[in-house]
Design brief:
Elements (H helix, E strand, L loop, with lengths): L13 H23 L2 H12 L5 E3 L6 E6 L5 E6 L4 E5 L5 E5 L6 E6 L5 E6 L4 E5 L5 E5 L6 E6 L5 E6 L3 E6 L5 E6 L13 E4 L5 E5 L4 E5 L5 E5 L6 E6 L5 E6 L4 E5 L4 E6 L6 E6 L5 E6 L4 E5 L5 E5 L16 E6 L5 E6 L4 E5 L2
Length: 359
């Protein structure tokens, strides 16, 4: 047999050799990962990478989402963003209804009127704008502030709005005319500049207003502007305040990664929730008052028992890298319960709003 007729020994396929090398490298990476990190966290990350997310995601914004609010009937969601817009969309399927473009800079806060007719939005442009929630047509612009507006809240009867600003004031004004009733002025610092107010919340009975900035949360008479009480530890930055639906308690989210719950009548700190590892940026009570959802710079929303502080579960939809979500551990700036208490909406630095089932 000629050497030309002899069958040659088949050579290994290069593609098979390359596959073996890739698989081997991945195995080495996994061994190192599981050896030097917490195995439960590793399994969770891998699970989120390969499993479809158990939530609905709204992708309409092009910058961070600063605030979300459900319409009183639960059918729509309004979301404010650093892209200078407020977008209104269907809460069931995410279909876009319209975009409000009245502001000249980042929109930092918004609130739906109790009857669902109007939306008020506050901005870095120093204005609060009131507009028709159905059509997006602006009906009034409030120019009382001289710096960014961080938070807005409607009175329970819908007649007044309270707005908290970086100019060191909380102002209470008529929602239709802009007539200012009360101004709460923060005392100036040694440099002569008043510290900002970051948060404002109206009591369910409409008689008091809770405001937060640097240090304690202050409770004021909504009509006279007189100071009623203070709640806090005289340290840290208050990012969020929220009244319980029955008006008996106040939840406070702050820069020390805590959520404090205070008894309004006794002025006693009931307990502190320690579940977060970074600033707590938003807090929201469930409509039945049994649970609290808190959003944090640590990338999570945590839901826990409002009377004991026992954690129910952690939502990590903004924190994980998975197909369709290509950022990791972005701060969650805002959280809101649906009016029926069955769903929660959360907005993040990742530019998304995610709507998920409240367990």
């Amino acid at each position: 047999m000629s050497i030309l007729d002899k069958k040659l020994t088949p050579q290994p396929h290069r593609s098979r050799r390359r596959s073996i090398i890739i698989v081997g490298a991945l195995l080495v990476v996994l061994v190192i990962l599981f050896a030097f990190t917490d195995i439960r966290s590793d399994i969770s990350v891998v699970g989120h990478l390969i499993a479809p997310p158990n939530h609905f995601t709204y992708h309409g914004h092009s910058d961070y989402v600063s605030a979300v609010a459900w319409s009183p009937d639960g059918k729509r969601i309004a979301s404010a963003s650093g892209d200078d817009t407020v977008q209104v969309w269907d809460a069931a399927d995410g279909s876009h209804v319209y975009t409000y473009r009245g502001h000249a800079s980042d929109v930092l806060t918004l609130a739906w009127s109790p009857d669902g007719t109007y939306i008020a939005s506050g901005s870095l442009d120093t204005t609060v704008q009131v507009w028709n929630a159905e059509t997006g047509v602006r009906v009034f612009t409030y120019h009382g502030h001289t710096d960014a507006v961080y938070d807005v809240a409607w009175s329970p009867d819908g007649s007044r709005i309270a707005s908290a600003s970086a100019d060191g004031t909380v102002q209470v004004w008529d929602a239709t005319t802009g007539h200012t009733f009360v101004t709460y002025q923060n005392p100036p610092t040694a440099k002569g500049v008043p510290p900002p107010w970051n948060a404002v919340a109206w009591s369910p009975d409409g008689k008091r207003i809770a405001i937060g900035g640097i240090g304690d949360v202050e409770l004021w008479d909504a009509s006279s502007g007189g100071n009623v009480a203070s709640y806090g530890y005289n340290s840290g930055i208050v990012h969020a305040v929220a009244w319980s639906p029955d008006g008996k308690y106040i939840a406070v989210g702050s820069s020390d990664s805590l959520v404090q719950v205070w008894d309004v009548a006794t002025r006693q700190n009931i307990y502190n929730y320690h579940g977060h590892s970074a600033d707590v940026l938003a807090v929201a009570w469930s409509p039945d008052g049994k649970r609290i959802a808190s959003a944090s710079s640590d990338g999570t929303v945590q839901v826990w028992d409002a009377t004991t502080g026992a954690q129910a579960y952690t939502y990590g939809g903004h924190a994980y890298f998975y197909f369709g979500h290509f950022t990791f551990n972005d701060a969650v700036d805002t959280v809101a319960w649906s009016p029926d208490g069955k769903r929660i909406a959360s907005g993040s630095e990742d530019t998304t709003v995610q709507v998920w089932q409240a367990m």
